[in-house]
Fold this protein.
Amino acid sequence: MDTFFGISGRFQTPATLIFLILGAALATLSWAPFNLWPLALVTLVIFHQAIATASVKQVVWRSMLFGLVMNLSGIYWLYVSMHEHGGASPFLATLMVVGFCIFLAVVLFLPFVYLYARIWRDAPTGLTLGFAAMWVLNEWYRSWILTGFPWLYFGYTQTEASLAPWAPVIGTFGLTFVLAFTAGVISQWINQIKHGRASKKALISQTLIVALLWIAPFGLKQVEWVTRKDDTPVKVALIQPNLSLQEKWNPAMFQPILNYFRQTTEELTDQDIVIWPETAIPRNYHRVTGYLDVIDTEGQASNTSVILGIPSKWRKDDRIVSHNSIISIGAGKGIYHKQKLVPFGEYVPLEDWIRGLIQFFDLPMSHFRPGPENQEMLKAGNIEIAPFICYEVVYPDLVSKAAEHADIFLTVSNDAWFGESIGPLQHLQMAQMRALENGRYLLRGTNTGVTVVVGPDGKIIEQLPQFERGVLKTEVYAMKGLTPLARYGTLPVVLLSAFIAVILFLSKRSFARRPGDNANDPNTD
């Protein structure tokens, strides 16, 4: 029988609807900037209650509703870039955001919930372990399908919370697994108390596992996965110019922008590394070589590495290819081309079909091509730096793959596209998680904020206020050693979840239920 927190009958459907919408909306408060992480558990318990005993048909529409509301609440800020900076009308921008959220709910979320309802939950322990595996496989799928949109992962709620010491071991996906498994067990206890018919043996065993998972961080906190390469501090300065998009791409502002960066950098000759943000110079690399030569010469004279974002064009196979790039000059050297491009922001899918339909598709940077894999680290003196441009830092495996050769992480961004919304703060939280997962200092240089330096524990060391011009100066250290996550990536947790899914499928086929048993009864777990 379908129940929701013990409610059945005519009040059950409206109660489920109200709580489902409320729980999905509240999920946003568990991520940055609110960081009310217990709400992640509340949301997951509500969702588990809504689908644990429902018919497959009910699971389908409830999941679509939940996914739509959670995504609308969590990534509404896409509207800002589409309307305020992309030129789309309010109606069209709203339509595009809603359409994208429907896509996320139906195409990227629903298939896994359907498998859970159809197969996994009916197996022994499927209501809890299957629920956790479902969330991990869904998040993993979203990280790569159609270039990926790895946003709103529940594991990020633990960046500075109770389970944070697990991050260097199991990563974001593993944290999601722990949260979902915990929520499933809590939900099953609610069902047990309400129904009082099932044996408590399996549920008690799972509760003990949950307790161990939440106690383990006290011990993991004492483990030093990485250490300093040496005790010599690296002095870094990050420039936050705070330019609006209108100023940045206004031809009349081009020379003042160049003057500002040069003059500010000349005042930082006592620093080892100076960071400019993404596309700090809004002009192609080959058109400002004279200017860059001056910065390079001055940097060499003061033994300062200047690392800056700039668009670049290169000839490849008899054609010109554009990249979103970072270069290191002065006492440093190297160039990096962005690998993970933002759809519609940096490249246009099906370009020949849809370019020009609305002004949004003709943003100044919508013509880039991805850089090659396995690019070399940037060098700043004898420091090896792993660079990531904007969106790239949200990909766990892309970052962990670089940790083996990196002393320090660097990410540059221009979150002005999203105004004063929560989008840039969610983006920052994901960057913090990458530092925590891999045990590296992370420098985050941005145009309008948030410009920060993050420690190997994922906590912010220094920070500039958003939407203010300024320079952040601090000291960091080159790190050595690899965390388990950096060594093995996310694959172990994904494979474990897939293994659980397969075992649940096989056990469902062989599980003989007594006559009259209901496969969807919460007490079968």
Summary: Confidence is low (pLDDT under 50) at residues 512-525. DSSP finds 16 helices and 15 strands in the chain.
